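Same chain as my last thread, 118 residues:
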Amino acid sequence: QVRLVESGGGLVQAGGSLRLSCTVSGRSTFRFNRMGWYRQAPGKQRELVMSISRDGNTAYSDSVKGRFTISRDNAKDTVYLQMDSLKPEDTAVYYCNAASLVSGDDYWGQGTQVTVSS
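reply #2:
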């Protein structure tokens, strides 16, 4: 059974930093073509924040360009999201996603709350 567990969320002041971690159990992260972070703010749809492919290619929302960095450590089965220069509009529940484009498998974590105060 594949399980994704996020950690690292919390309350931070605007301009601060947080690092989110997503640890995968039940399958190596290497088996997933794409690992990503999504977020959902109250009253809004879930949106892509950043994703990283198996070969390191990244995709991101323009709203986080230059401030967030995604990385994956397949040896630790963990994906990270480094968030710098945080803004109040970054406040949301952040979800980790693991996708296998060949099999169509798609897994989600339970989410971690990030709150940025002004």
